[in-house]
Structures are given as C-alpha cells and as structure tokens.
Write a sequence for this structure.
C-alpha cells in the first residue's frame, strides 16, 4: 500500500475544515440527498461525502456502509483524492499498486472501484471528497465524470451555504444557530458517554464605552480579539460561539467545573496582558462570566443549560459593579 502524499498546506487545510464545524456532527439531509442521488445515478452500492481531518476521515453522509462514521486517514482512498486537482479514478483497486493491499480492498467493504471528486472551499482548500465505491471493477465515461463533478459542485455549494448560515461574519465563530446545532450533538454525545460538560456564558464589560469613545471599528477589533482568545484557550473539541452583540458562549466537552475555572483564569490573564500593548486603560475591557456544569436532573436541553449560565453571568456582573458610597 502506497502512503498518500500530504498536501503542503495540510495544516491550513485542516484548520479550514474545522472552522466549518462539521466534524463529529450527525448526518444532514443537504448532503444525504446528494449521496442518495449519486448512488442511484451511478448504480453503485456505496456513495459518501467524506471530510478529511488531520488523522481520520469523518463520513458526513453515508449511503451503503452500514453504521460507519469514520476511518483512519492513512488507509482512506480519499486521502489520495484530496491532493489532486480533479477526479481520482481507480477502476480496479486490486490492480493498483497504491491500493492492492489496502485493508478496505483485502477485507470489508471489499472495494474494487473508487471514484472521488475533491470538495473545495472558496479559499482553495480541499476539505473533503464526494466518492463512489463498488465491489466490482468498472470505470466512468466522460459524461459520467462530468456528472460526478456537477454533484461535487453541489456539495461545495452546501458547504458554503452552511458556513454562511452558521458562522458569525465578524469573528468567524459559530453564530447562535451554529452553536446550538453543534452543542446539542456534543451534549448528547457526552451524556451518552457519561462525560462531564460545562457551559460558559461571557459578556464583555466596557464594550459600549469603547464604541462611544474610540468608535465602532475599535469595538469590532475588541470582539475579534476576544474571539481569538477564546479559540486559543479552548480545545478543538469545545464548541465556541458568539450569540450576538457582546455575548459569547462556550460548551466545554469532557470538562468539569475545575477545568472550566482554569480556562477562565487563562482568559483573564490574556485580557490583562493585552492592556499595556494596546494602551487601553485599566478597566476599559474585561468580561463577566457564568459557569454551570451540566446536570441531567436540572437541564433537559442545551437551552436550559445556557439559561442557567446566563443567569450566573449576570450575578457575576452585578457583584463586580462598584458600590455606591453611603
């Protein structure tokens, strides 16, 4: 088996993929209808939309591979497909030195034929593949190849529309809709695996003063910088979003209250360290935060968990206000 080449820009490519926040998310009709159509049009037993992460392939849409959700990147045909500019066509994998001893060829699902069209974002990064698999050798004629490219183009359009619909345009974080979609799935997964979950609800202090005294452009810069700090402090597995205005939320998966407190302290240190370098006077920019650990007895939904974290944030904000002198 020939190892797949790694794209020169693979780190940037993976970052672009993860910003889509589609990894570890359930199937969606927008992609499933394309794989159902591909399976029918090409008369193949298997059609997939695969997203190629750093060390694995996440199967976003699956027609014909039972309950498979991911595969190691080093044995996936799609890891070869993402490095090309056009279709990767393998008429008979048993006769191709790159794949003849691949475990997906020598064992289940007994792949003989593979055709994969790369899925690219507008920035040029290839994040996945729309692919067809068959257990019998075959090929595609020119018309069929053109049709597969057309279907891949439709999948690319879905990636772009999903990114626009669930992403805050200023900070690049998930917007409210995107956060709620991802956090529902993350919460359900942690609940099933009995792993702890903690929600953090942030509200920036002093943003109105920044907007009033320095202008909205400076206020936007503060929002973008705080979003960057949140990305730095938290892990890729955490769900980070901007709810709008000066409110931000984070769902820490597999993290208890102590771990959340550590993240908050790191964030406080980053905000404090920012002031001397920007010339911002002390107190110009800070944040209030509410932290609540998930409890199945108290929280029947992600909305209930966030509502309690919001209330805790407000209590923290009130407690930090200067008290009027007697």
């Amino acid at each position: 088996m020939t190892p797949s080449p790694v794209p020169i820009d693979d780190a940037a490519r993976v970052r672009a993929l993860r910003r889509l926040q589609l990894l570890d998310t359930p199937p969606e009709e927008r992609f499933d209808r394309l794989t159902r159509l591909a399976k029918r049009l090409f008369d193949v037993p298997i059609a997939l939309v695969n997203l190629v992460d750093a060390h694995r392939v996440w199967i976003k849409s699956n027609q014909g591979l039972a309950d498979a959700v991911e595969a190691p990147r080093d044995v996936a045909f799609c890891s070869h497909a993402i490095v090309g500019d056009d279709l990767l066509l393998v008429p008979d994998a048993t006769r191709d030195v790159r794949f003849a001893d691949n475990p997906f060829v020598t064992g289940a699902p007994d792949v003989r034929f593979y055709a994969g069209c790369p899925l690219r974002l507008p920035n040029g990064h290839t994040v996945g593949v729309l692919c067809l698999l068959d257990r019998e050798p075959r090929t595609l004629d020119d018309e069929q190849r053109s049709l597969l490219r057309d279907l891949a183009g439709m999948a690319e359009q879905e990636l772009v529309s999903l990114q626009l619909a669930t992403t805050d345009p200023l900070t690049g974080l998930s917007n409210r809709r995107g956060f709620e979609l991802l956090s529902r799935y993350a919460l359900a997964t942690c609940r099933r695996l009995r792993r702890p979950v903690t929600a953090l609800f942030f509200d920036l202090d002093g943003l109105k003063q920044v907007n009033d005294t320095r202008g909205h452009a400076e206020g936007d810069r503060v929002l973008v910088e705080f979003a960057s700090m949140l990305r730095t402090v938290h892990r890729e597995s955490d769900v980070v979003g901007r709810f709008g205005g000066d409110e931000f939320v984070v769902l820490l998966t597999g993290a208890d209250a102590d771990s959340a407190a550590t993240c908050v302290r790191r964030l406080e240190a980053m905000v404090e360290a920012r002031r001397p370098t920007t010339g911002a006077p002390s107190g110009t920019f800070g944040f209030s935060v509410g932290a609540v650990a998930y409890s199945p007895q108290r929280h029947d939904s992600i909305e209930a968990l966030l509502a309690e974290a919001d209330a805790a944030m407000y209590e923290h904000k009130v407690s930090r206000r200067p008290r009027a002198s007697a």
Remarks:
- The chain is about 45% helix and 20% strand.
- Residues 271 and 277 are 11 Å apart (CA to CA).
- Strands lie at 46-52, 56-63, 70-72, 88-90, 113-120, 126-134, 197-205, 239-244, 247-253, 286-293.
- The two ends are 80 Å apart (CA to CA).
